[in-house]
Design a protein that fits this description.
By secondary structure, the chain is mainly α. It folds into three domains: about 20-85, Up-down Bundle (Ferritin); about 90-155; about 160-190, Rubrerythrin, domain 2 (Single Sheet), CATH 2.20.28. Helices cover about 60% and strands about 5% of the residues. The protein is built from five helices and three strands; from the N terminus they run H-H-H-H-H-E-E-E. It has helices at about 15-20, 25-55, 60-85, 90-120, 120-150; strands at about 160-165, 170, 190. The chain has a three-stranded antiparallel beta sheet with strand order 2-1-3. A hairpin with a 5-residue loop joins strand 1 and strand 2 (about 170). Helix 2 runs antiparallel to helix 3 (about 60-85) and helix 4 runs antiparallel to helix 5 (about 120-150). The radius of gyration is 19 Å and the shape is globular. The termini are close together. The mean pLDDT is about 95. The structure holds fe (ii) ion (3 copies). One fe (ii) ion binds near residues 135 and 138.
Amino acid sequence: MADVKSEVSRKDEAFQKRLPKTEDLNAMTEASLKAAFAGESQAAEKYMVFAEQAEDEGLPNVAKLFRAISFAETRHARNHFRVTGGVGATADNLKAAFEGESFEIDEMYPAYQEIAKVQKNTQAGRSIKYALKAEMDHKWMYDDARRSVLEGKDVADRQVSVCLICGHTVIGDVPDKCPVCAAAKEYYKTF
Ligand code: FE2
Ligand code: FE2
Ligand code: FE2
């Protein structure tokens, strides 16, 4: 979250000293922390959507409260994730990310898409289609990045943009129209 103001660097010793670290976990502790990671991650996203709703209702301070507490939940999620040993070296993280995207593309979303189709839930189908399309780009972006990192290089410094509606992700120039949801180019957020 780039808009959060803070004076300290994540690299500070005092900062690092206080962060929970990876350790050998007993089976039930590991299962608990993984469940907590999922729950905290979901709470964080839910609160961000609630913040948008509060904005729409003309309640900017309620929106701020939701955003701040969402940020707190991400701290909890990240701590849990770190302790479960989810973070490796970047080349390994890129491989894990690639595999996650591949699973969504090859198994998860196609199956979910069929369920939505059979049940004639068209909005669910739309939401699934948006995700599935974007994951296809994410997959090769992670794969390319991993190749670079394995050669000892960072990826090229190019802009990465994301459609605010469907999550379509593009490296380099933004298309005039989103190829997935047809939103205009103003609807992209650039990193
Ligand atoms: Fe929490
Ligand atoms: Fe993705
Ligand atoms: Fe889009």
